[in-house]
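User: I'm new to structure prediction. If I give you an amino acid sequence, what do you actually give back? Let's try with this one:
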Amino acid sequence: MPLDDHCEVVFVAGLAKMLGRTEASIRSAMSSGADWLPKSFRMGTRHCWLKEDVLKFLRAYRDGTIKTPKVGRPRQAPPTLRDIRR
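Assistant: Good question. You get back a string of structure tokens that encode the predicted 3D arrangement of the chain. For your 86 residues, that looks like this:
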């Protein structure tokens, strides 16, 4: 489905084009509940987004108001010479 500038509702294909990702990555993120996707709603059997909401979401990321949490295990401080005992 082509991305229409006059359309206010964006479907998976249009969102993938707006975010520069594949449709498969959008669908995978929807099923895993990724935080880098704007809030969607269902219209019938299709997931969709309001174009205005997507643009607000992207502006918030650009401006830094949405921060993704860093994943991984917390690091410990490296050992010092005082920690090493003979």
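You can read the tokens as a compact description of the fold. Here is one thing that stands out. The first strand starts at residue 9 and ends at 11.
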